[in-house]
Amino acid sequence: MALKDAPTIDVLKFDEEEAYNHDRPISSLVRTQLLHLHTAENLWLPPEDRTNININDLHTEKKASEYIQKVTALLHRHGRRQQQPATASAKPKKARKAAKPRKNAASAGRK
Question: Among 2, 47, 77, 105, which residue's CB has the most CB atoms within a 10 Å radius?
């Protein structure tokens, strides 16, 4: 069988304490996520719903996580409020059939 010949992969030990260090400085990936969420917050939320948190003050994974949770919840709540129930007029229109090309008047008399 093919399973006997399949290569095996050694799985490294996983250190949970190291993986979940909330005081660790944020990575560039998390920094980019903060920038994207901050932009979305300022573009899509009304001023009274914004967190007014300066993302440049978020240096640890815990602080970044708290901000991400707040903004995500606000964006979801705002998105739900904006959705409209589907109405009969919102149904997609059927495609029209293409008109058949007309024969040229000069060629219509020839056979």
Answer: 77
The answer to whether residue 49 scores a pLDDT higher than 80 is: yes
Cβ contact 27:58 at 8 Å: no
What is the end-to-end Cα distance of the chain in Å, rounded? Answer: 70
In sequence order, the 6+-apart residues with CB closer than 8 A to the CB of 57 are: 63
Residue 109 CA neighbour count, 13 Å, CB half: 2
* Residues making up the chain, counted from first to last: 111
Residue found by looking up tokens 């095996």 in the block: 8
**Cβ-based neighbours of 38, under 8 Å, separated by 6 or more:** 55, 71
